[in-house]
Amino acid sequence: MADQKKISRREFLQAAGAAAGGLALASCAPLPATPPAAETKATAPAVVEKKTLTLAIQGFAHDAVRIVLDEWEEKTGHTVELESGPTTGQEMVTKYAPAFQAGASPVDVMSDADDSGPIFYRAGWIEPLDGVIPQETWDDFPAIFDQQIEVWHSYEGQRYRVPHEFAIGYTWHRKDWFDERGLEPPTTWDELVEIGKAFTDPPVWGTLEAIKKPGLMYVYMAYLTAQSGGEIFEFDEATATAFQFAHDLIYKHKIMPETALSMDYTEQNEEYMNDHVAIMRQWPFFWGVARGNEAWYEEGKAEIVPPPSGPAGPKSWWGGWGFSVPKFAPNKEEALDLVAFLTSAENAPVLAEGQSWFVMPRKSIMEAMGGEGLVPFMKEYVDAGVPAPRPFHPKVAEAQSVVDDVASLYLTDQISLEETMERGKERIEALG
Q1: Contact of 282 with 265, CB cutoff 8 Å
Q2: What is the pLDDT of residues 351-380, one digit of tens each?
Q3: 168-318+393-431 has the same fold as 52-166+320-382
Q4: I need a labelling partner for 300 at 20 to 30 A (CA). Which of 155, 188, 327, 417 fits?
Q5: CATH 3.20.20.210 fits 168-318+393-431, yes or no
Q6: Cα separation, 348 vs 397, whole angstroms
């Protein structure tokens, strides 16, 4: 009924506990005498129904997750089947929205993206996690996660998703080249330009970025706007500064090729590993890509340093995926317990050690993994205040497309910077 009060899982458990306590007290009271001739039958223990849950997460993470799932299955008696989940937020919406709209769900737990999570929360399709995830789990995240969790993992004061990934753009450089020339990595935009010119001698470029539409153009412009201090979806003055800097790198300073405008990440990485790039921004996966190229990789060829500082400092925006439970999950109560188990401070390090996708600057993970792999650089970035929140808009996919479109026109010299900012504002306002 419409006027019924919806209780949380915690309230439900508390109420159940109180009821159980009442029954226990009642059992201590004197019982009426039983006639001697009467026989009592022993009550058979209640049979707990064993359930099979479905967890959807990207296939490359299955082996790492299975290690933790085995313990949960033994503990609860339930079974978890792994399903290969979508790889993008857009795919998440395409795959699950029709079922959610019909009041059903093909999965019990899912790994959900930044791009799709807020859409699902606002539609009322995800179960709140308040009262399910203990405070000690939230306390295991560093303070830099606070804003991100409130904006991207929450809605109207309730939390719907627990982060399991920390995706941030790192700055990679050819330390071997820099050492040969006695140069230090650039710490500011001006130094990036100066050093970039020292290395630029096509086919070698000072810097390179994959800026292909759709999507990658937005990623790079948001990265520079974090360093300029702008609000990218507002197309403010600081955003204009970032756009101008990107344009100057290509046309004025000529340290980044125009071909970057049609390049994806695979092509960018190939250029770097073909010894054509001195310094670049790239996601954490390049750590494995570079070191996996055994014929090319040597120590010093792909080393991480802090990003160059713009007007707002050395920033790099971050985002990622997290665990959620659909409101229509077939086994919702068990699914909520499973998410709490997967994301605990005890199990987060197990996942991280099994797959780098799960490596985050959580206290438990940092302590468990020490100085291995990306961890020292991740800690360095966090300690230096590099991570910036991912820019948010309620219609995030459409808003990012606006940036893609107008930035592409500007960086191909089809419209002026002033017109770029005006068109961007108008189109964002039209989204409502």
Answers
A1: yes
A2: 999 888 899 999 999 999 988 888 999 999
A3: yes
A4: 188
A5: no
A6: 30
Which CATH number is 52-166+320-382 given? 3.40.190.10
pLDDT tens sequence across 90-135: 889 999 999 999 999 999 999 999 989 999 999 999 999 999 999 9
Measured CA to CA, the distance from residue 57 to residue 62 in angstroms comes to 7
| 265 beta partners | none
Residue ranges of domains in the chain: 52-166+320-382, 168-318+393-431
Cβ pair 127, 332 in contact under 8 A: yes
Tokens of 280: 């670049």
